[in-house]
Give the backbone structure.
Amino acid sequence: GKLAAFLFSFCTVFLIKPASMSVVALVFGEYFSHLTLGHASNLWFSKGVGALLIVVLGIFNVVGVQAITKLLSLASVLKLAVVGFLISCGITVLIKGQGEIGNFQPPLSFEGSSTNPADYGLAFYYCLFTFQSWNSLNYMTEELKTPEKTLPIGGLVGMVAVAVSYFLCNLAYLTMFSLHHIVDTKTIAMDSGFIAFGRAGEIIMTLGLLVSCLGCVGGSICCISRNLQCTADSGVFPTCMGGISKRFQTPVRAIIIECTTMCLYMLFDANALIPFLSTVEWLFYCVTFSVILYLRYKHPDTHRPFKVPIFISVILFLITGTFVILPLFSQSSRMPTILGLM
């Protein structure tokens, strides 16, 4: 119904997507400040750089999508290049005989681990935050010739590729650094390039990651603003938020609103934003899987172009429900989680 559409659209365009992109913009700012200022960098300078990135990419989105399209293509290639370079850093450190092999020995690997299960739920929030782009595939359904075939294949191939890439990246981190260094540093990728290839490796890794963040934020502004424009034009939001500019043929008002929202989220701590937006996001996932179960029971004979096996829906319903509830029992994420549920 309209209420459900309003709640999901509101959370998507004003909470989940802008908050997540503000975190990515902050990562851009932190790496840029460390590259240019070194140890003299500070948090507010990083946030200022991140906010400036959002404004510049917003202007690019207003002017037209061709530049953003080219940027996204370049960013996609560089993301894979960064992953490959990071893995090569780990291999280089091993060849030099400088690897932290002790990280793979069980007594050291689990030293200082939490005994609170809720903390592991919070850890999953941070891990799954990097996987959230899979749900963007659904926005392309109308433009696919055979979505019942292409969509599942694209999702599976993409998720497997991302999972393998991230596994190898974390393996490289554990090979190069102590557990304490991994926890304390904010620029782990930059440190990887430096320890393997010196200052040149540090610069290469940082530039690749900056372009990757730039493409991620630019593409998200493009998608989220059109989401807001469509929902405003359909009456879910005030019509003043929608419309297409006659001069630029882009949703200028929606772009301005989304960029402003992202910049406002830059004022908050990223460690609070991730549990907050993840709670909202996984709550909707849980509701989605519960609706699938309900419709399978209520309308079993309805034609479905793509039919998910029922046991998968049951398992994912239980998992997503656990992800929503478990962080409530973690001291460090209780308040952001409660705010997300509200």
Remarks:
- The CA atoms of residues 137 and 151 lie 7 Å apart.
- The mean pLDDT is 78.
